[in-house]
Amino acid sequence: MAILEIIKMGDPKLRIKSLPVTDFSAEALRNRVLDMVETMRFYQGVGLAAPQIGLSQQIIVLEVTQNKRYPQAENIELDVLINPKITHSSEQTELGWEGCLSLPGLRGQVVRSSTIGYEAFNLEGELLTKTVSGFHARIIQHEMDHLNGILYSERLNDMTHFGFEESLPAFQSAGDIQSQ
Ligand code: NI
User: How many Å lie between the centroid of ligand 1 and the Cα of residue 136?
Assistant: First the structure.
């Protein structure tokens, strides 16, 4: 296992649309996913998409356990999403703070669907279907954007609420808003 370098905003690799994984038996896939999990945990992310390690494949990992970067977020068990597709997005939306390991230190507010349905393969190649809400749904929408070459900075609701964590009064006083 290895902690990988996370590429940052401005790198053209973050703009590439990812391709589906085709070989679920490959040992390389398992190793890549394990590296992504280790990397996400090391940098205290709640999610990581393969393009962030320079790999244009449809792979997402996510996990929330007492995360210092998102202290009020609910716990979410480790999940691996391969070739994910959003099958339903609620019309109801919510505004919430987002950060990204490819934009270190920055935060901004993004409107996302409150609830989404999605399907994705797991590491064993089984297709799973789930419905999730709130912060969980937000993470998946954010990571799905990565697979399509989109960063949250392109979806900002209000540029005056985009900036460095320690300099943003609205983020400092966000309180419960952060838990979305
Ligand atoms: Ni991100």
Answer: 14
The CATH number of residue 73's host domain is: 3.90.45.10
Distance 71 CA to ligand 1 centre (A): 17
Domain tally for the chain?
1
- How far is Cα 156 from Cα 74, in angstroms, rounded to an integer? 23
Residue 20 has pLDDT above 60, yes or no: yes
The backbone torsions φ and ψ at residue 46, rounded to the nearest 5 degrees and listed phi first, read -100, -5
Which residues are catalytically annotated?
143
Cα radius of gyration rounded to whole Å, the chain: 15
Give the pLDDT confidence score for residue 174 in this predicted structure: 66
* Cα angle: 168, vertex 169, 175; to 5 degrees: 105
Ligand 1: distance of its center to the CA of 152 in Å?
7
Q: Would you say residue 155 lies in a domain?
A: yes
Domain, as residue range, for 54: 12-172
Q: Kindly report the pTM of this predicted structure.
A: 0.93
Question: Is 71 part of a structural domain of the chain?
Answer: yes
Q: How many whole angstroms separate alpha carbon 59 and alpha carbon 73? A: 23
Question: Is residue 23 domain-resident?
Answer: yes
In a domain, 5, yes or no: no
| 137 CA from centroid of ligand 1 (Å) | 14
